[in-house]
């Protein structure tokens, strides 16, 4: 019997760490693209790669040439196709590390209770406005962003920069208001802009009854670390979107709890 080479079993600690980190990155990427059209694109690319391996192994020269050509420009194609996902990925990394914008890090120093107590009072006019808009079936889309992302918020809509009040929120979303269409953006507990046009989610997993307002609310949370509250004009139901996922028909207490956690 010949000698079998087991040298590849020689795994170092660094290899284990390497595999662990790759697993985390794959999980992160999966979370980012889950439920979006990007999953289909990824499956498509994977199938092409498999086909390339098969035709190469079978020495089918013409097909190998064609698939090989496709794969050699693959990395550039990946950047173009997954532009939004890569952007989202980098934003997530950058913002999670950013000390100034990370409430959890602050809470280590200031104490979690103090921050939450503060927010409960500041959230009250928003919760009250959502309650009354839900009752009167006034459609509303409110985005809470940790910082003012010019790309989404400044190029469309009206710059306001006002203190939050229940009556101001209600009057902005009132049907006759010129600013009622589009999203209202809150940054650091100030109303920054109203009537913003947001990127729409292209997720195929969303409930059929979700129209543009819901898709816009979910879309902005896919692209950034903002969260969005959507009040349905049709049903008065309140939905809460975060990281591309949506909690439908939440109660006012749930809304308060979620905002307290995330804003
Ligand atoms: N890209 C966008 N960004 C922000 N708001 C948008 C965008 N597109 C549409 N909207 C808002 O959504 C409203 C249309 O909502 P639509 O009825 O399609 O949504 P919906 O999800 O079914 O919500 P509802 O339950 O309130 O009807 C528009 O009047 C506008 O205010």
UniProtKB/TrEMBL annotation:
EC number: 2.7.7.85
Keyword line: ATP-binding, Cell membrane, Membrane, Nucleotide-binding, Nucleotidyltransferase, Transferase, Transmembrane, Transmembrane helix
Catalytic activity: 2 ATP = 3',3'-c-di-AMP + 2 diphosphate
Residue spans crossing the bilayer: 12-30, 36-55, 62-82
Superkingdom of this protein's organism: Bacteria
Signal peptide annotation: none
Enzyme class: transferase
GO molecular function: diadenylate cyclase activity
The DAC domain, residue ranges: 83-252
NCBIfam families, A to Z: diadenylate cyclase CdaA
UniProt similarity note: Belongs to the adenylate cyclase family. DacA/CdaA subfamily.
Its job: Catalyzes the condensation of 2 ATP molecules into cyclic di-AMP (c-di-AMP), a second messenger used to regulate differing processes in different bacteria.
Assembly: Probably a homodimer.
Stated name of the protein: Diadenylate cyclase
